[in-house]
Amino acid sequence: MSTSGIVVSSGIAFGQSRILHQHSTELDYQLLPLSKVKAEQIKLSHAIEQVLQLLQSGLHRLEADCDNYQLIEADILLLEDEELTHQLLTSIGEQQFTASVAVKRVFAQQANQMLAMEDPYLANRAEDVLCLGSRLIAAINGSIEHDLENLTYPTILLATDLTPAEFATLPLDKINGIVLKTGGLTSHTAILARSAGIPALLSCDFDEALTNNQQIALDALSGYLHINPDQEVINRLERIGSEDKLRKSRLQKFKDLPTETRDKHQVSLLANVGSLSEISHLSDVGADGIGLFRTEFMLMNASQMPSEDVQYGLYCDAVQLLDGKTFTIRTFDIGADKELPCLSLPQEVNPALGFRGARYSLVHTDLLKSQLKAILRAANHGPIRLMFPMINQVEELDLLFKMIEECKTELIDEERGFGELSYGIVVETPSAVLNLASMLPLLDFISIGTNDLTQYAMAADRTNPDLTKIYPSLSPSILKLIKMTIDTAKEANIPVSLCGELASNPLVAPILIGMGIDELSVNLNSLLELKSTICNNELAAYIKCSEEALLIQRIDELNHYVSHCY
């Protein structure tokens, strides 16, 4: 039996199934007899300790600067909150609720308070809080799946969903693959799975009858989950997996080679990263630097905003690690689907169309100025490129550059040194494409963000897997918008980068190069394969393919053409 899903981290994996249930235990809402109140409070305290031990054990396995550390830390801080514990114990003692009902009610109240703060990021964090509550209820009822730590066999983990904090507690050395019923290419779980190099399928509606300890074969190359596969399937996937591993090992020869076509046309291959730990692995794949440093990753589940000095230290560490290589920082891309509980935004019906990116920063100037000053100070120690997300109009750039000058004045008054920056924007809306000519005189480079450009051009939520199947990132309209952007920038002699998921597709990247893209910024695991593809032909061939691709008017025909172009 097999079912399909979206490949978010490629590879072939085998293992026994392990299902993380959502803990939908039936709750008993009958009031407790007074004689049982104390015992129920003790049961709650033991459950809190048990979950805390699991979280702290996961925390100890991580480095403090990795993506997952603060995700676990946020859950620990919540469980150690004395006010929360008091609420829970009072709910049992005065209202005579069972421990499970008390947790259900109090954690729901906590989540609702986050939603009431009208912050779309906290809406996502509210889901994490409810998930933590479910884990606590499971511990109370003696059904918490705490033995994941003690896995002794290769495992394929299956769940409806997996929060970043839960991902951070996984024993990754035993997890061969991950399959979720929810999520898509750009979800946080997808980013974490790719970073960890674990084959993963998302939006995979596996059978509810699936049980633990069944044999699973995960084909995260073609996008299939095989349950109790027969020997023929196993042999085929083992062969494909061996070929894939051999192919990846052969890619190592490209690590120290220049990224250029056969006729010596050079392209810069950069990395999309979100932490110092990822930056330290740039040399493993021969990246030319960083094309996108997602600074908002430092905020995910942080209990408070990092100060200017904390940010300054982080950026300086990155500059030192890069040792002169390209370092492109994107200012906080806040809004839409990201979880940042340390901030507060007005609740919006359509957050992707609301206060996000530079829009948010221009309203919350203290946050932006703190970041700008930290980056300006770090630029005194090495070259930094700064780019702003969600820019649509030149007036927005005017306000941003005015703020930069104010920051420079403040740093002079504070007798703090600063360096000069190169400036760019992320082109991710049709408006930015159409208004680009008016903004280019203020810019040193641009980067095309195809994830959001597709979302806004197609009017299709990129977090909705049903829509991403209908409107993939590769479509005739998106290619035309990319070409318009490149042509406009080239007329002004402004270099063009592309940092969306489209850049990681080795079938599409040569077409982008044929259009005139100067840089591609991709996740680290895609970089060597991309380099091998770029080096495999001459620029003239890529130009010809791009010209032919731009004439195609149907999505299915375009995808067929791309897969047979070379």
TrEMBL record:
Extent of the signal sequence: none
Residues annotated as domain PEP-utilising enzyme mobile: 154-223
Residues that hold phosphoenolpyruvate according to the record: 294, 330, 451-452, 462
PROSITE patterns: PEP_ENZYMES_2 (PS00742), PEP_ENZYMES_PHOS_SITE (PS00370)
Coiled coil: none
Keyword Glycoprotein: no
Major subcellular site: cytoplasm
One GO cellular component term: cytoplasm
Matching InterPro entries: PEP-util_enz_mobile_dom, PEP-utilizing_PTS_enzyme, PEP_util_AS, PEP_util_C, PEP_util_CS, Phosphohistidine_dom_sf, PTS_EI, PTS_EI-like
Stretches assigned to the PEP-utilising enzyme C-terminal domain: 249-536
Active site, per annotation: 188, 499
EC number annotated for this UniProt entry: 2.7.3.9
Reaction catalyzed: L-histidyl-[protein] + phosphoenolpyruvate = N(pros)-phospho-L-histidyl-[protein] + pyruvate
Its job: General (non sugar-specific) component of the phosphoenolpyruvate-dependent sugar phosphotransferase system (sugar PTS). This major carbohydrate active-transport system catalyzes the phosphorylation of incoming sugar substrates concomitantly with their translocation across the cell membrane. Enzyme I transfers the phosphoryl group from phosphoenolpyruvate (PEP) to the phosphoryl carrier protein (HPr).
Protein name, entry field: Phosphoenolpyruvate-protein phosphotransferase
Organism from which the protein derives: Shewanella atlantica
